[in-house]
Amino acid sequence: MDSDTFWSALALVLVIEGLLPLLSPGSWRRGFGHLMQLRDGQLRFFGLCSILLGFVLLWLLG
Fold this sequence. Notes:
With 62 residues, this protein is mainly alpha-helical. It has one domain. The chain is 89% helix and 0% strand. The protein is built from three helices and no strands. The longest helix has 22 residues, at 40-61.
């Protein structure tokens, strides 16, 4: 993977992350409020699942 691919992927993540607050800020705020109420272990679990899903998608697409 070259640096252009890395920066393109990072830019795409930022675009996708910005869509929900742009299109529906109220829903985003409520969802973020629910995240703030989760325990550390629950947040870590969701983070781990996200990482694993990302690796699986990279493996399938690569």
